[in-house]
Amino acid sequence: MVLIDEVSLPLTGRVALVTGGGRGIGQAISLALGRAGAAVAVNWRRDEESATKTLSLLEEMGARAIIVQGSIDDYARHASLVAEVEEQLGPIGILVHNGGVGSRGDLVIDTDVADVERLFRVHGAGPHSLTRHVLPGMRTQERGDIVMISSVAAHVLTPGGGPYNMAKAALEALAHTLSKEEIDHGIRVNIVAPGFVATEMGDRLIRGLSKGEVADASEPGASEIMGHVCQPEEIADAVTFFVSPQSGYITGQKLIVDGGSYPHRP
Length: 266
Description:
Blueprint (H helix, E strand, L loop, with lengths): L14 E4 L5 H12 L3 E6 L3 H13 L4 E5 L8 H11 L5 E4 L15 H27 L4 E6 L3 H4 L5 H20 L5 E8 L5 H10 L22 H11 L11 E4 L9
């Protein structure tokens, strides 16, 4: 086993909080940030087993890491969640809003407003609330980074994805607003927008939007214009770039990671 050499790594001394960081894209992001030298707080909502496995992988590579339970739409939990991370690892300098849920694939006429509200709580109001509690500690540091994991859904606007499309658009609006409000405090805010990714949630979205005609993200007809469906590690690479020294002059930007699957954008 080769342990990471923190002395030579770009994120040494920085603390990252990754929501939904225990599995899928979130796990890949947690591991990539840990590999780059960051101390990582892996947030989980229901799947403690996956979060614990991610923690073990981080510890095996020599990264400082903890797991913290809390739902992104449980606003009352956010202050204590942030305090827990800061007490064990230090002030949060990197916040990755990755945790999310999908909609059911129904047309607007068939969608109850409760489903719209559910998606907005997770992708809009939840990130707004958690960010408010992270910002005071982040402002005290030389540099801060917030990365929002959005989706091509926010600009492709696929029929049947109304609540998800709307919620991700709200997340992007929050990111762009924050990028202007926090620049004087040395905080960069950027967006990574994946297309379909080979994860459990990606499979659910594929099945929902195709009404079961496509089983999962690995099937032809999903998204493989570059010869393969996007892997979680490819999203993690984009996040790691945004929080690295190489992106010091970049904020308020959106990086679409879809392999060229959606070339016609507004």
